[in-house]
UniProtKB/TrEMBL annotation:
Protein name: Aldo/keto reductase
Domain NADP-dependent oxidoreductase span(s) in chain numbering: 53-297
CDD domains, A to Z: AKR_unchar (cd19098)
Pfam families: Aldo_ket_red (PF00248)
Source domain of life: Bacteria
Amino acid sequence: MNALVRRPLGQTSLSVTPLGLGLAALGRPAYITLGRAEDLGDDRDVAAMRSRTWAVLDAAWAAGMRYLDTARSYGRAEEFLAGWLRERGIAPGAATVGSKWGYAYVGDWRLEAERHEVKELTADRFRVQLEQTRALLGEHLSLYQIHSATAESGVLDDEGVLDGLRALRAEGVAIGLSTSGPRQADTVDLAVEAGLFDTVQSTWNLLERSAGEALGRAYEAGMGVIVKEGVANGRLTVRAAPAALVAAARERDTTPDALALAAVLARPWAGVVLSGAVSAGQLRDNLAAAGIEWDAELERRFAGLAEEPEDYWAKRGSLPWS
């Protein structure tokens, strides 16, 4: 895979590139990515973060990325993206743009905020946030996703929510869900059973592989699969990567993050894999994944890195917002 060529996302009408850009770490001053203070420094006012977001978007666009992923809870990410699309004169449909509803950003642009986001998966929250998203992204919105649906939340049985999603789908916007937590596979299977969703976005990486078989079933059912957290919020980058990953990256003259993302790209069900880069340099390293040939030797070499889902998500939950 030497080029980011657009392709269908599963059996949906959406068109994506194998690597896409996620804006979770760019639209707000604080996030849980390791090394954030070093990456961003002290200047994280709105203007500085907007400028940084636009610079990464410019680099992603120049590299050929055509899937852009955001959410209502990513601070001002939707606003930054909307301004960039307008300023660069990018027409609706030239990129596939996905956003999410369910969390609200409440951090008030403060690093030390007690809470940065609040989750509410209700029909009222859907209606309010859809209006907010459309006010910013307008016709650019291609995909709207439930943010971090879980089997236990009941959102997949909420007829008020489902009716709203059906109506949005009838208007031509694809609908999907993202998943999180140690029971991702259960949530994915419920989404497949519902027969309503066009896409699913889940965490899968060398440390957390538990959703893999369920994602394969979603793909076989025609859903497009988007993979997030391919570098485990920084745990699979040069800052914290396991020794085996560091050694293999050195041998192949690449970086741990590129190798980790190449592992995700090698999954037959992975439609688009998100980069969470916060600089053009990080994006360049991530993009190298598209040129790495994943093989059986690498698959065997990293099989032992997988953690128990409960352990993985406990570690993720302990990462500080910084």
